[in-house]
Amino acid sequence: MKKEEKPAPKTARRCRNMVIAQSGGPSMVINASLVGAVTAAQKMRREGKVGRIFGARHGVEGILKGDYADLTRLGAGKAAAIALTPSSALGSCRHKPDAADCRAIFEEFRRRDVGYFLYIGGNDSADAARIVAEEAGKAGYPLVAYHIPKTIDNDLRSCDHTPGYGSAARFVASALIGDDLDNRALGGVKIDVIMGRDAGFLAAASALARRRPDDGPHLIYLPETPFSADRFVKDVKAAMKKFGRCVVAVSEGIRGKDGVPIGATLGSGEKDSHGNVQMSGTGALGDHLARILKEKAGVKRVRADTFGYLQRSFPAMQSKTDLAEALGVGERAVAFACMAAEGAAGAPAAGTVGIRRKAGRKYAVELVPLPIREAAKFTRSVPKEFIAKSGCDVTAAFIDYARPLVGDLPATEIL
Amino acid sequence: MKKEEKPAPKTARRCRNMVIAQSGGPSMVINASLVGAVTAAQKMRREGKVGRIFGARHGVEGILKGDYADLTRLGAGKAAAIALTPSSALGSCRHKPDAADCRAIFEEFRRRDVGYFLYIGGNDSADAARIVAEEAGKAGYPLVAYHIPKTIDNDLRSCDHTPGYGSAARFVASALIGDDLDNRALGGVKIDVIMGRDAGFLAAASALARRRPDDGPHLIYLPETPFSADRFVKDVKAAMKKFGRCVVAVSEGIRGKDGVPIGATLGSGEKDSHGNVQMSGTGALGDHLARILKEKAGVKRVRADTFGYLQRSFPAMQSKTDLAEALGVGERAVAFACMAAEGAAGAPAAGTVGIRRKAGRKYAVELVPLPIREAAKFTRSVPKEFIAKSGCDVTAAFIDYARPLVGDLPATEIL
């Protein structure tokens, strides 16, 4: 569109352009972060601090291909609708850029006069942004790079909790409310396999479904506690004896004593460029666990569901808190990036937005700039104080932690 | 509670008691039917036509065990909360009563002076109620038996559509909206396996997710059209060429030319007492179809999710129309049963509630009494005029049929 080709308002300083992109697994609120960032960048543009705003399609792959959506004049109505739409509106990728990719990226950035690079994603995406930032330093290309945190797994070390988690947890807790009622009606054992490659936060959120003393999930297994099939059979038998039925929430990432994820030994063995083995998008782990129970626990009716991609993409399921915070981290990332470009103290040139929970009974957070390496590559596990000593449940401390992130859940009644 | 032991108001005629129960797979609105029936029965009790109202737990099994919830004085507040709660509040079963069971049932009914038997469920449950009614006739036990229609599969011949379907279809369409956006972001092929043992109505409802010309699902496979793996591979390749990605909605009940459900050959082979093979609660069919595509279509990224029990149990997902109609069929069943007890013309002593869609552009239905055999045992398939000639899509006529049952769906926006 010709209208969009106009230069940014003239200022004393050169007004460099921004590239923003999304990476890794989508979430229900990653578009809210995109909209938060674009809205903040539009404001900075009016202040003469940012030029045009390019949305690269499918993460760094879009930069390498020169495939962009021009978001400079994204209207408020469309922005609001995008913010409420699940999944990644710009498309995503799982590409880890190497040195050659980075050279191609800087050529592209030079051509477009890009001074700001914002990358929304999880720890792998933060690592990709870190690589781009470091290579830019080596190549002498002036770039401010910010990572905007997103992951339904809630496993970033830089955040008390990560945008995307609250909404996915809301889906999981809602699903367990319904599924527990279904199991009440027909009995037997129901296994629900929940996303979470390395961290069990999402499976742990299933505990929020409980309202009555005999409500499920009755057993919760996380990757943080080594999984033993024998122990599992014993736990289920005990729950069946106590409740006459049993609902099991299990993280897709559960692993044996050897540390190898059980799901990874059953699936296709397919890996992405960050080295992650495919675990979602298959019912293999659930079926494997169901077989164990039928053979060894003597339970006649065993069913297994794998919640799969609905956990990150179901529409109209966002937690209000999660949605607001996702918007907030997008806005703040742009603000921090502009501060860094101006050389302000406290905002690193390669940064991420940290989320800190404030002390006190009332839930509140503050968003802070942190060096990008704080979010990159390494993952955070569910801390010990959130895991029950039994190894098959969570603690009250976890419930207190998770409840404000998830918000209200549907009420139910039984006879 | 002593209060509840009081006899019903005295009238000239003897005021016989009612047993109501739920059977088969739960739904999101089967409790609305229960509440509709109980509320209507309470009204009939005030009019001196019905005595006490017993809810048998877990269908006919509760009658055989003498396990009841006394619903005679179920309060309005609790009733409203139960109506909005998914799954079967009285519990369910899949037990097909034989002649011996019926003799035990009539002994129990005689002891409790039960003159009305209401059974909420699908075609197998209607058949169970039909057996009870016929055996009562043979045994000379005076009984009015009414079936209250429920099934997410939408496969009763006695109804234009069945209560439970609209809400499950709403879940499916919502899930596909999100899942299609997820597939837009990361590409490849996504397979979603949707409930429907014999009829493809629920998988067909995935088509309601489409808003834009390139929205998925791009392929829809129903049990009504013989499934060929070769044809499937060709269809997916063509969709990949056209859209650069592909979302597939497939009914769990798809079957080959031999008529054998493909899922039934992959699962545990477990059968219920009505002879139905287990197909839900396992990811086997989705994984099987994904393997075919990886091996024969050369698609690198193939993921499969099986929606499983969430389709019938997810809370706060009810379609308003479905909820209102579920309540209505419960109310009308009791009204028809009382008419039958009074010997009124048009209401059979063993009946079901039929749902007829009225002619005209504005959606409206009428609820009519029908002989119970109209609902029993046999299933309704998706009619030919709802299936596209390609065999891998639905028609506009189906969309017109299904949209008012499902109601509004979340809006989304793309870049």
Structure description:
Chain A is of the alpha/beta class. Chain A folds into two domains: 14-163 and 317-374, Rossmann fold (3-Layer(aba) Sandwich), CATH 3.40.50.450; 170-312 and 381-406, Phosphofructokinase domain (Rossmann fold). Chain A is 37% helix and 15% strand. Chain A contains twelve helices and eleven strands. Chain A has helices at residues 30-46, 60-65, 76-83, 99-112, 123-139, 165-186, 201-204, 229-243, 284-296, 310-313, 320-341, 396-406, and strands at 17-22, 53-56, 68-70, 114-121, 144-149, 188-194, 219-221, 245-251, 302-306, 350-357, 365-371. In chain A, the strands form two sheets. In chain A, strands 3-2-1-4-5-10-11 form a seven-stranded mixed beta sheet, with helices on both faces. In chain A, strands 7-8-6-9 form a four-stranded parallel beta sheet, with helices on both faces. In chain A, helix 8 (229-243) links the parallel strand 7 (219-221) and strand 8 (245-251). In chain A, helix 1 (30-46) packs parallel to helix 11, helix 4 (99-112) packs across helix 5 and helix 8 (229-243) crosses helix 9. At the A-B interface, helix 3, helix 6, helix 9, strand 9 and helix 10 of A face helix 3, helix 6, helix 9, strand 9 and helix 10 of B.
Task: Provide keyphrases for this structure.
homodimer, 415 residues, alpha/beta, Rossmann fold, four-stranded parallel β-sheet, elongated, disordered N terminus
